[in-house]
């Protein structure tokens, strides 16, 4: 069978690209969905100035790891009060963009419970109503701006839902590295490692193909070369631009493969230990790489291309890189016992994302 690659998102990349939002929106009115600190950072004022009369309102009460507990009232008032709004402009990290993806899918009743019930079936459905999404990432990592998926958490029930419909691809992604200039190093690390994880997970993946591989190799190499320097020079526009491009490429790679074992493990680490996503999905990468190596000569060659052709030392190099940016690579560092980690890995291999993993099962 032929290799297939599909990504319908119109991408604008470059410093100052945010100024092109009016051209993208045309005559449409838009709701701004962003993170609470955006106001204090002057970002909301900047967007008000750019969007002018097109801006219908601002939703900024989003939290990390969007949860059904607060999404319900946000969703219902959005659909009740803004029926005339045609587009959502999501400005922020993965949580803002994922929240916008939940908001863009309208149920017949406008009730959020109905959306959760549809998600709980795990089957695709055709939304009764839909808004267009323009995603503007302010971190370099999530990739959510070029994928159709969102993770909706139900922390009280100890589980998560995956939103994934043909209708939830963003219409456009506006990647403006200048928006990332003031990110604190903690966020730069977490998002950068999320991007590295997306790149690697798209390679040790049953859905990998030569087109996703091309993006993934470039992304992984660039993250590893750039992130330590960027942490020393967080105000560098050149390095911010390189990281933004690397994260975008990682997003393009996994937009067609989905993630695999490291992300599957991460969900339990986030639910049980509150570990931020970018750390939870990256601290296991050397272990997962070790399991992936030797499974398939074609996959080995792609992985080796990231590590200058030397796959034998790659897990050690990857662990050293993670340690260099301040991330411990042992489960024990996060309070997980050896037995618990074995059980967690076995569970993760059986998870939806774990089943994408090519490597050893035991
Ligand atoms: Fe991720």
UniProtKB/TrEMBL annotation:
Gene3D superfamilies, A to Z: 3.40.50.1970, Dehydroquinate synthase-like - alpha domain (1.20.1090.10)
Per the entry, which co-factors are needed?
Fe cation
Enzyme nomenclature, EC number: 1.1.1.244
Look up the domain of life of the source.
Bacteria
Q: What GO MF terms are annotated?
A: metal ion binding; methanol dehydrogenase (NAD+) activity
Q: What biological processes does GO assign it?
A: antibiotic biosynthetic process
A UniProt-annotated Pfam family:
ADH_Fe_C
PROSITE patterns, per the entry: ADH_IRON_1 (PS00913)
The keyword Oxidoreductase is annotated on this UniProt entry: yes
Listed A to Z, the keywords are: NAD, Oxidoreductase
Domain Alcohol dehydrogenase iron-type/glycerol dehydrogenase GldA residues, every copy: 8-177
Q: Which top EC class is named for this enzyme in its record?
A: oxidoreductase
Domain Fe-containing alcohol dehydrogenase-like C-terminal residue range list: 188-357
Which NCBIfam families does this chain map to? Phn_Fe-ADH (TIGR03405)
Family label: Belongs to the iron-containing alcohol dehydrogenase family.
Q: What is this protein called?
A: NAD-dependent methanol dehydrogenase
Source organism per entry reads Usitatibacter rugosus
Q: Could you read off the lineage of the organism from its UniProt record?
A: Bacteria, Pseudomonadati, Pseudomonadota, Betaproteobacteria, Nitrosomonadales
């Amino acid at each position: 069978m032929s290799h297939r690659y599909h990504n319908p998102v119109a991408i604008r990349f470059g410093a100052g690209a945010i100024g092109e939002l009016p051209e993208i929106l045309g005559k449409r009115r838009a709701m701004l969905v962003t993170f609470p600190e955006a106001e204090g950072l002057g970002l909301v004022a900047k967007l008000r100035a750019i969007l002018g009369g097109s801006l219908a309102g601002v939703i900024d009460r989003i939290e990390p790891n969007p949860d059904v507990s607060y999404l319900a009232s946000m969703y219902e008032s959005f659909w009740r009060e803004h029926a005339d709004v045609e587009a959502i402009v999501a400005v922020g990290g993965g949580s803002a963009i994922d929240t916008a993806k939940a908001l863009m899918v309208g149920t017949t009743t406008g009730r959020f419970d109905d959306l959760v019930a549809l998600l709980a079936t795990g089957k695709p459905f055709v939304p009764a109503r839909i808004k267009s999404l323009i995603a503007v990432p302010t971190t370099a990592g999530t990739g959510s701006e070029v994928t159709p998926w969102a993770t909706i958490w139900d922390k009280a029930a100890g589980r998560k839902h995956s939103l994934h419909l043909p209708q939830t691809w963003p219409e456009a992604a506006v990647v403006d590295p200048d928006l990332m200039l003031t990110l604190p190093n903690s966020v730069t690390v977490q998002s950068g490692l999320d991007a590295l994880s997306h790149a690697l997970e798209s390679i040790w993946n049953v859905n990998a193909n030569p087109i996703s591989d091309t993006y993934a190799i470039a992304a992984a190499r660039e993250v590893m070369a750039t992130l330590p320097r960027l942490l020393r020079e967080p105000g560098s526009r050149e390095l911010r631009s390189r990281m933004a491009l690397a994260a975008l490429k990682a997003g393009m790679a996994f937009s067609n493969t989905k993630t695999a074992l490291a992300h599957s493990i991460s969900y339990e680490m986030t639910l049980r230990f509150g570990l931020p996503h970018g750390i939870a999905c990256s601290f296991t990468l050397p272990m997962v790489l070790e399991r992936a190596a030797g499974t398939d000569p074609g996959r080995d060659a792609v992985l080796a291309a990231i590590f200058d052709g030397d796959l034998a030392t790659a897990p050690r190099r990857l662990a050293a890189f993670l340690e260099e940016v301040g991330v411990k690579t042992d489960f024990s560092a996060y309070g997980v016992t050896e037995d618990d980690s074995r059980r967690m890995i076995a569970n993760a291999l059986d998870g939806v994302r774990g089943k994408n993993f090519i490597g050893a099962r035991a």
